[in-house]
Amino acid sequence: MTAQKHPRFRLELAAYRTLHQKVLKRDGWRCQNCGRARELHVHHIEPRSLLGGDVEENLITLCARCHRQIHERRANILFLKDL
Asked: Which of 11, 55, 66, 81 has the greatest number of C-beta atoms within 10 Å?
């Protein structure tokens, strides 16, 4: 018997935008890796593709550069799993 996957929690666009703003505010409008306050993105710590949900605990603020580095697997960020 195989384990069933749980469906990921994904918000509708309007609710996601509200959550996005909440995460930016929570993180002080700064990249949580380098501290930059420009070109900010909200990153899923556990990717949606691995059933990471659109929930505050799974989101973190990163600048465009750090976000790109994470996706290129070059970042040295301690809060992310399995880089």
From this structure: 66
